[in-house]
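> example.struct
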């Protein structure tokens, strides 16, 4: 796997969303941020820089069960390898965050 993960951030909030962490995506050559979703408890979001702004790239429903990826319109046509690297990296970041939270009590 070519994505590199940062240490989980267990108490960080950005724009009212819980930040699960960040990871580097070699195929995209950028750091992406994984957060909660504002209205769905079992959903995470992946954000990345685009034209100087933070942009929603991907939403993943049911990360604890059978993850279902929903790509933004501007990203869905990217190569499958690129999409899979981002999906798996986001799920790893979320799993590490969840594990760190349960270890914290």
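> example.seq
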């Amino acid at each position: 796997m070519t994505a590199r993960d940062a240490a989980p951030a267990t108490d960080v909030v950005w724009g009212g969303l819980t930040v699960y962490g960040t990871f580097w995506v070699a195929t995209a050559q950028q750091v992406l941020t994984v957060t909660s979703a504002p209205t769905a408890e079992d959903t995470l979001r992946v954000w990345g820089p685009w034209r100087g702004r933070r942009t929603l790239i991907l939403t993943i429903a049911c990360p604890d069960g059978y993850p279902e990826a929903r790509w933004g319109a501007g990203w869905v046509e990217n190569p499958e390898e690129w999409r899979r690297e981002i999906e798996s990296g986001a799920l790893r970041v979320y799993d590490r965050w969840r594990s760190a939270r349960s270890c914290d009590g």
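> remarks
Residues 4-97 form one domain.
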